[in-house]
Amino acid sequence: xxxxxxxxxxxxxxxxxxxxxxxxxxxxxxxxxxxxxxxxxxxxxxxxxxxxxxxxxxxxxxxxxxxxxxxxxxxxxxxxxxxxxxxxxxxxxxxxxxxxxxxxxxxxxxxxxxxxxxxxxxxxxxxxxxxxxxxxxxxxxxxxxxxxxxxxxxxxxxxxxxxxxxxxxxxxxxxxxxxxxxxxxxxxxxxxxxxxxxxxxxxxxxxxxxxxxxxxxxxxxxxxxxxxxxxxxxxxxxxxxxxxxxxxxxxxx
Length: 253
Known about the structure:
Strands 10, 11, 12, 13, 14, 15, 16, 17, 18, 19, 20, 21 and 22 form a 13-stranded mixed β-sheet that branches. Strands 1, 2, 3, 4, 5, 6, 7, 8 and 9 form a nine-stranded mixed β-sheet that branches. The protein has 253 residues and is mainly β. The protein has two domains: 4-122, Acid Proteases (Cathepsin D, subunit A, domain 1), CATH 2.40.70; 128-252, Acid Proteases (Cathepsin D, subunit A, domain 1). The protein contains two helices and 22 strands.
């Protein structure tokens, strides 16, 4: 199926919700759970069922959880989905978006994101290797990939929803970062913003490839949730990425 690449690199797909639609949503491999906007929940009559803490790059936040009977993405169907609510317009930087599909739906699937052709291929079986295979760890509702660097290992969330390379807590990291300026920027998520500092990563090893002078932002905070790892790897920087959720590996093409 085809997808649209948003202005900030997001993967925008047509989604059917409760047999209505299609609606435009982000396929977000960095999100632990799916989410829909408050006005869209009213449109599809999704009823509140609970309150829960959700992990975002800006930290933990408490959200209302609603019940959705069915979600269809191409040939994939997910039933009894429990997305959280986000404010209307929270995803507007990518255009008019009604929500996002997270790992509560995606973790059990096999699929390839082809950023060159802007297509998604859904796999029934383990896909054949067309690149470097990297092991995935599934922790606290998120996938983390371990990337070996010259000075150690960097554990990153492979994130199709991240607009830029994000690093947490720069001290003692396995890579070298160079400050871009003394100014700070605001990192926006679907629910809140967080102050970050722009930097440049001298070298980032992804499998057998080396990316040099990669723009990034760093977020410093005293405590991190284990699911965050060392940061977020924006997948739109790559050409082709295959997730095998059941097999727990990533193929970078």
